[in-house]
Specification:
The mean pLDDT is 94. It is built from 14 helices and 19 strands. By secondary structure, the protein is α/β, with parallel strands linked by helices.
Length: 448
């Protein structure tokens, strides 16, 4: 069996790759690895809107209860709601069933500890060993098995926390919200109603199969068209589990995570809330972001791709904001993981406070042309690109042509069978040509 845990939990094609057996064994293993001083640990389970999420939830419940754990289900919620509610209800762990921005045939399992943080790599490794050797797990019987309870008001507790955080300064901003037919579909409606904002919601009618289907943060073009035609001040798009958020201005221009972090970092600095005058981002952040931050005398800490590494750095040095270009943004004062709804509220609060349009503020942030392309790799070639001489040779060739005023980043996805090729430079046509050349060789060498 290949490694289960990637950069963001377990993920795969639901039922055939991420099987019910694996889900059940994850439930058993999690209970086994929790604090032994508590004989009946409580585990909260949330899920997104995929048809397979209910099936995997049933398997997880069976595993947890059979190993002696009690389950509290909270239904369809954003991933950050699980992180918040674990701590709020004093549970021992949390599970979110989601494949985030992936299409409906995929699903995944994310684990959170009692403090609402994602499990560190070493604990995931310990759980994975048990999943692969389920015979080592002791099962309970009769009165020792766990119970299952539904927390019917959990969503409301999360909504109340979001509303409490808001400064409610954006009532006059007309905003269009794309829920990706995912976890935010009902919660976003309630949040923005409680905030009494001027909003319209689209793609909030999930049917189990339409999550992320030509909507949400992975299809921002659709939102941009609606913002322009409806004369909205801006648009906001969530992904399937609402832990990330992207925006478009009134002209339909994309405002990615880099730009949102940049604007909010400057705003937090002005309000004296930017700890050590530093923001945390990943190696994917645009060179224009770094120029803007330098111009505003804000330091930038750079980490590997993955919101867990952003958070790790934030906790290590007590930084207040960090995130990714993809829209995962963490506000350490309020959350333990990326939260799309919280990010949207923070962005709207800033716009309301400053009395300026998103377009005005974003126009001050330079953007270097950037392209990101994906190559599907076969299972047998996973983890081999750095040792493939043909692939490394073409990368070195492009680096020598591109020179110092460009940036090339090659990495293997931690959640999908993909090699990601990102190139940044001065001329879009050049970087597209360079990326295509690398992708062609990679596909020939690593594809199925």
């Amino acid at each position: 069996m290949a490694r289960l845990f990637g950069t963001d939990g377990v993920r795969g094609v639901a039922i055939t790759e991420l099987t019910c057996e694996i889900a059940m064994n994850i439930g058993k293993a999690l209970v086994t690895k929790l604090d032994k001083s508590k004989p009946r640990p409580i585990i909260i389970i949330g899920k997104d809107t995929r048809r397979s999420s209910g099936i995997l939830e049933a398997a997880l419940i069976a595993g947890i209860a059979s190993a002696g754990g009690d389950v509290h289900t909270i239904g369809v919620v954003p991933t950050p709601a699980v992180a918040y509610l674990v701590k709020h209800y004093k549970a021992d762990a949390g599970i979110m069933i989601t494949a985030s921005h992936n299409s409906a045939e995929f699903n995944g399992i994310k684990l959170f500890n009692k403090d609402g943080f994602k499990f560190p790599d070493e604990q995931e490794d310990e759980i994975e060993k048990l999943v692969k050797s389920p015979a080592q797990i002791a099962l309970k019987n009769s009165g020792e098995v766990g119970t299952v309870t539904n927390l019917k008001y959990a969503n409301e507790d999360y909504i109340k926390e979001l509303v409490r955080i808001s400064d409610v300064k954006f009532k006059k901003i007309k905003v269009l919200i794309d829920c990706a037919n995912g976890s935010a579909s009902q919660i976003a409606l309630k949040v923005f109603m409680d905030l009494k904002s001027d909003f319209t919601i689209i793609n909030n009618t999930p049917d189990g199969l339409n999550i992320n289907d030509k909507c949400g943060s992975t299809y921002i073009e659709r939102l941009a068209e609606r913002v322009i035609s409806g004369k909205f001040d801006l648009g906001i798009a969530f992904d399937g589990d609402a832990d990330r958020m992207l925006a478009v201005d009134h002209n339909g221009n994309l405002v990615d995570g880099d730009k949102i972090i940049a604007l909010l970092s400057v705003y937090m600095k002005e309000k004296g809330e930017l700890i050590d005058n530093t923001a945390v981002v990943t190696v994917m952040s645009n060179l224009g972001f770094h120029q803007y931050m330098s111009k505003n005398n804000i330091k930038v800490a750079v980490v590997s791709v993955g919101d867990r590494y952003v958070l790790e750095k934030m906790l290590q040095d007590n930084y207040s904001i960090g995130g990714e270009q993809s829209g995962h943004i963490i506000f350490k004062k309020h959350a333990t993981t990326g939260d799309g709804l919280l990010s949207a509220i923070k962005l709207l609060n800033m716009l309301g406070d400053k009395g300026k349009t998103l377009s005005e503020l974003v126009s001050k942030i330079p953007t270097f042309p950037q392209t990101l392309k994906n190559v599907t790799i076969s299972a047998s070639k996973k983890g081999t690109w750095e040792s493939n001489s043909a692939v490394t040779a073409v990368i070195e060739e492009i680096k020598s042509i591109a020179g110092d005023e460009s940036r090339i980043l090659i990495r293997e996805s931690g959640t999908e069978p993909l090699l990601r090729v990102m190139i940044e430079g001065k001329v879009q046509s050049e970087i597209e040509e360079w990326a295509d050349k690398i992708c062609l060789v990679a596909e020939q060498e690593l594809g199925s």
